[in-house]
Here is the input.
Amino acid sequence: MARSLGRALETVLAKTGPGEDLEVEGPSLANARRRQLFRYLCLRPCARVGEIGRVIGMSHATVRWHERVLFENGYVELDGSQAFPRGLVDPEDAALFSLLATPGRTAVLLTCFSEPGISLLELAAAVGLTRQSASKVASELSDAGLVTLVEDGRFRRHYPTETLAKKREANRPRAKAFADALVRRLGEEGLSPELLRSDDGVVLVRFGSASKRVVLDVPVDPYVSAWRSEP
Here is the structure.
């Protein structure tokens, strides 16, 4: 059953052309590049402009312009230079996601999860950083509550915490409300949305006009995808 559903969704995606602009003026997600940006911000909230531009092929100025349009249309929040999907994450966690989007931070965090108790020298070698740089990153992760530093004789050992797991669990109702709000917002823009699938990891929605419709898969598990998805 699951495999049949997967094949059916692949067929829908192929037929509806997810990368095409809609023949509708105005609504922000009618623009294919803007959909790409919105989806990426759902995957990695507060991602840096340079990262976004590199991954989806936009100039810095274009990324900023699309972020502004998404903000004006109620799809994202802007906190200084940080952009994140409105309603998907707790705004108080913007600094946390910004930290995870900083180069080198996710590599250190992933290593701490894969090798709990790793020493500083081992950590630095594993992620390709100097001892000083690895120590700085680990201290930042510790200050954010993501890593615990334990002195063990002449070694400093690094252990992951349950902070992200707890935040992920607490965010499930917010993610469900976000999915409902997204469908409602698309409807308000006259894009006749159809919710095809909604679970803990993704919302799949089809929308558009009578002449052309697209399918957008929106990641809704940012407390995992923000640091486990390769930029």
Summary: Residues 1-18 have pLDDT under 50 and may be disordered. The two ends are 32 Å apart (CA to CA). Residues 165 and 223 are 8 Å apart (CA to CA). Residues 97-162 form a domain with the Arc Repressor Mutant, subunit A fold (CATH 1.10.10.10).
